[in-house]
Amino acid sequence: MIRCNNVTLEYVAGRPVLRNVNLHLEPGSFTFVSGASGAGKSSLLGLLSLSLKQSGGSLHLFGSDVTDLARADLPPVRRKIGTVFQDFQLLNHLTVAENVALPLKIMGEPRDEIEAKVRELIAWIGLDGFGDVRPPFLSGGQKQRVAIARAVINKPLLILADEPTGNLDHELSMKLMHLFRSLNKVGTTIVFATHDAALIEAFDYPTIYLRDGQLHRTRS
Ligand SMILES: Nc1ncnc2c1ncn2[C@@H]1O[C@H](COP(=O)(O)OP(=O)(O)O)[C@@H](O)[C@H]1O
Ligand SMILES: [Mg+2]
Question: Looking at the domain that runs over 2-219, which CATH code has it been given?
């Protein structure tokens, strides 16, 4: 599913943020990425989502070499990836239903198919009746559930979650984990970055730890 070989990332030449990262994740795996603030978690996820480009090494996703993909070849790979961020990144002028529908709308799916899928997902995240509400009227936990629904509506093979519980208290974080766990149970590969040690302790998923730009496996 994911294979990084000797990946290096530099924002500034000569100052690597990630150094010689080797990572191999199987399809269907759930992996925590931990490490202090500034350790490089978001940078690693940025590489995996193909929004950042490595400075050295190679990257394979979904069995293909994506190290030097041309810009025009990025969208079909990116469509297999769903992303969830700490700050939700919802569009405040759109309703919950419109936010969730966005990826399918961009892909030009027929309107009635979009509506059926959106309804199903809004029920799945427990927000029945909130379809016409705009994000500013939602709590943090509700916003993040909407962001998850939007991330999964086009059935990505891989979900990259960058501190998705960073703005939520522990109880809400644990609730949100149920959504990620149920996605993983149906085969979705999950990479979940968090510096929340209590959350990591609550589950026994493999964990990798970033420090000084290098990756260490702390739990298999
Ligand atoms: N766009 C950027 N330009 C320069 N340096 C950056 C940029 N983004 C992140 N960094 C630096 O890269 C390092 C890793 O950051 P980041 O990947 O955001 O870590 P984390 O997500 O673990 O907090 C930090 O030292 C940060 O300052
Ligand atoms: Mg980060």
Answer: 3.40.50.300
